[in-house]
Structures are given as C-alpha cells and as structure tokens.
Design a protein that fits this description.
This protein folds into 3 domains: about 90 residues, Rossmann fold (3-Layer(aba) Sandwich), CATH 3.40.50; about 210 residues, Mur-like, catalytic domain (UDP-N-acetylmuramoyl-L-alanine:D-glutamate ligase, 3-Layer(aba) Sandwich), CATH 3.40.1190.10; about 140 residues, Mur ligase, C-terminal domain (Protein-Tyrosine Phosphatase, Chain A, Alpha-Beta Complex), CATH 3.90.190.20. Helices cover about 35% and strands about 25% of the residues. The chain has 16 helices and 21 strands. A 10-stranded mixed β-sheet has the order 8-7-9-6-10-11-12-13-14-15, with helices on both faces. It has a 6-stranded mixed β-sheet with strand order 16-17-21-18-19-20, sandwiched between helices. The protein is globular.
C-alpha cells in the first residue's frame, strides 16, 4: 500500500485492538490530523474512554459488524487470523495492515525518525528522550510504550520532522520502520514463542541496523555482550555512537547514588567531560538508559540545558518503578518487569530504596515466556525476603498445562527462597495485610494486571 494512501485524510481507518498502548497512540495521531477513526477492543479502559472523548467510534468486543464504511483496517500482532473483523475485512476486500507496517508508513512523513529498540529499557529511554526534546522548540511527535505524564499519556502528536518512537522487536515488527537514528539498549533472549534462539534475535537486530541510512546513526550499548557481538562482527553503513559505564565513546563517570538509589554522574565523550547529570529514577540500569537518550540528543544537536533539565525532570513512566502510595508505613511500588534480566535490575533498584523487608508479588507473563526462560526465572529472586507468585497472565496464549506458576514456585523453593503461591488477588492482599509491617515495601511486578494488587492493598 502506498504512503499516499496513508496520507489521504479522507480515508477512514479502523483499529482492531485499539485499546493497546501503541495502537491507541497511532489512533490519537490520526485523530489530531483530522482522520475519521473507529476501533474495537475486548474491554473498555481509560484509554478507550479517552479515544471516545477525542471523537473515535469505539466498539467493545470484536464483531464483523464493527467494520462499517471503512477504508483501511489496522491490527496488532496479537490479533489472530480468525478474528471476525479480519474475516469481514477480507470479505469486503478492505485493505489490511499490521500495526508495525502502519507505524512505518506514518514515520515516512518525517525526516528525523528516532526508533528506540532493545529487549529491555526502551520505554524508559524513549521517555527520557521525550523529556529532553520537550525542552527544544521543535513540536515533535512522540509515541511511548507506556503512559508519561509529561505528554499526558502515551502519545504527543506534533507537526514537525521529529518523530520519536519505541521499536519493538516482537515478530520483527521494527523491521518495518524507517529510522534516521536507531538506538539499541540491549539484546536478550525473549519472545521465544516467535524467535528460534538468541542467534535469530541477533540476526533480526542486525537487519534493524541495516535499515539506518548512510547519513543516519546508531546509538548502542557496547557493554551488552550481544550488542557488542553484532557491532564487532559486521560492517554497517551508518555512523555508530557507542555508550557504556566503562566502554564506549560516551560514558558515565563519577557515579554516586542518593538514599533513594538515584544516580548523579558526569558524561564523558572519549576523555572530554561534557556535563553533569542528576537522575530522579533509581538504579544503575537507568544510568545506561540515560546515556542512550543523551547520545541520541547529542546527534540531534539538542542543547546541554535541554538534556540536563529533561533528565532531571524525568521521574519515570507509569508502571516503571512507580510509587503507587503508602499505607500504614508500607511503601507500594509497581514495575512492569516481566523478564529475568528486568526482574534483577528492578530488585537491585528496590534494595537501594529505603525499606525493612521487601514483599515482592510477581505475576509471570505468558506461558511460552515462563517455559522458555524457566531456569532464568527461578534464579531471579535468589535473595528476596518474601516472594508471592500469582498465576501466569495468559495474554494472547492458551493454557496447555505444560507450565504453571506452581511449577515455577516449586523450583524457586528448591533454591531456598521464601516463596509462596497464591491463586487470587484477594488471597494475596489478605496475606499482605496480615504480614506487612511499617517500613516494609510492597513491590508488584509483571506485564499483566498485577498492579491491581497494590491498588487493592492501598484501598
């Protein structure tokens, strides 16, 4: 389908799965540009309500009758071919386009496309860039895979050549993008329901780098072993800017942490000190995320003051080590971590945060991920005070009985970790009420709906 088709504002676009964070962002960009938008999702949410307020026609539930007077249907990777709206669109010969291809077509209309990729940290790194660019007078379009207060949600629709977006590797979606700057935070084994192994994942990231034109740039974390491998073993046409704590062109030196675990550090380019940075998000992993955003900003010639003030004002996106509140002296924090590497980074950040004991409620996300990374998950909580495992959040998958949260709990208990399995949020909250004491931390983790546990406890 041509880019001219996408540019035609007389076209009516329908989104299947419009309540998703990325799909809703694309819908909002089109609404602001004057398109007529409709969409469906399995349940209503504050996101679908917000779209309805902006003028979108929202259907709850998927039904072929939702496809009315539509010129294009956009769907997410999670939508199956037997979805009734997909079937109806094919019957009516309405063009179909997946989310990644549609986003790529939207990117075509911009000169400075920044695509932030990586298995972990891309939402935070994208949000940091967003905070920085908001200090520049450039009217950007920003698409974040989480909700960011600075832009009033997950999208900011601008009218300039600047387009900042996450670039998700699931099902090789980011290979349909058109980056001027590509950023890679790290490469890890994930989405093994699609990828064969880590080599398949690395090969896909190599293809992503090759999308960057000769005049473009790659910003890459050279201290990640998989990133380092693909940088050293291949030649690329774009200019590469590497970063790290001890390696890379761009480095963080003189790192110090305050009582909340937030870092202050100096930014060096080679041996030249550029400026100092104060972060208001905890953890060493966020120093690396900040370096990714700094490297991108330097390439775009953003002012030093924009970089330092933007990073200082960033206190995190929703569901990324988000302080949900306190009750009876208990601090409640929620985090999106759902991969062993992310879990370890989040727990390290939590340990530097004031607390007596940490009660971690973890909800595994998808059966395939839990099964494929079973041993890695079992080794992620080795020194946790109290671990409560909720049932696996199925997301797009069906339970085949091959793996369960109980099996993961049994393996973790074999490693002498204080771990219990509870099978409803009500039972988890009852347990927490009986066991949490003043000065403790309640940390909910997972990409599903485990955030509700902390909210239920606070209520």
């Amino acid at each position: 389908m041509s880019f001219d088709f996408i540019k035609d504002k007389n076209k009516k676009v329908h989104f299947i799965g419009i309540g998703g964070i990325s799909m809703s962002g694309l819908a909002q960009i089109l609404i602001k540009s004057g398109y007529t938008i409709s969409g469906s999702d399995m349940k209503s949410s504050h996101i679908t309500n917000k779209l309805k307020e902006k003028g979108a026609c929202i259907y709850i539930g998927h039904n072929g009758d939702n496809i009315k007077d539509v010129d294009l249907v956009v769907y997410t990777a999670a939508i199956s071919p037997d979805n009734p709206e997909i079937i109806k669109a094919k019957e009516l010969t309405i063009p179909l386009m997946d989310r990644a291809e549609f986003l790529g077509n939207v990117m075509k209309g911009h000169k400075y496309n920044v695509a932030v990729a990586g298995t972990h940290g891309k939402t935070t790194a994208t949000s940091m860039i967003a905070h920085i660019i908001l200090n520049e007078d450039v009217d950007p379009t920003i698409l974040v895979g989480g909700e960011l207060d600075a832009i009033g949600g997950n999208v900011l629709a601008g009218h300039s050549d600047y387009f900042i977006t996450e670039a998700c590797e699931y099902k090789a979606s980011f290979l349909k993008f058109f980056p001027y700057i590509g950023t890679i935070t790290n490469i890890d084994a994930d989405h093994l329901d699609y990828y064969r192994d880590i080599n398949h994942i690395k090969d896909t990231f190599i293809k992503f780098i090759n999308l960057i034109p000769k005049e473009g740039y790659l910003v890459a974390n050279v201290e990640d072993e998989n990133v380092k491998t693909i940088l050293h073993n291949h030649d690329y046409k774009c200019t590469i800017l590497t970063y790290g704590l001890n390696e890379g062109t761009l480095r963080a030196k003189n790192i110090a942490y305050n009582k909340l675990g937030c870092a202050t550090f100096d930014v060096y380019r080679d041996d030249h000190m550029l400026f100092g940075v104060n972060l208001n998000v905890p953890g060493q992993h966020n120093v690396l995320n900040a370096l990714a955003s700094i490297g991108t900003s330097l390439i775009l010639n953003f002012a030093e003051s924009s970089i330092t003030s933007g990073l200082s004002s960033f206190t995190g996106t929703h569901r990324r080590f988000e302080l949900k509140g306190t009750k009876n002296g208990v601090t409640v924090i929620d985090d999106y971590a759902h991969h062993p590497t992310e879990i370890k980074a989040t727990l390290n950040a939590a340990k530097n945060y004031p607390h007596n004991k940490i009660f971690c409620v973890f909800q595994p996300h998808t059966y395939s991920r839990t099964l494929s990374l079973f041993e890695d998950f079992s080794n992620s909580f080795y020194n946790m005070d109290n671990l409560i495992l909720a049932d696996i959040y199925a997301a797009r998958e069906k339970d085949t009985g091959e793996i369960s949260s109980n099996m993961l709990g049994d393996r973790i208990r074999e490693k002498n970790v204080n771990c219990i399995n509870l099978h409803s949020f009500d039972k988890i909250v009852d347990y927490l009420k009986d066991n949490l004491k003043e000065g403790d931390m309640l940390l909910t983790m997972g990409a599903g709906d485990v955030v509700k546990v902390g909210e239920m406890y606070l209520k």
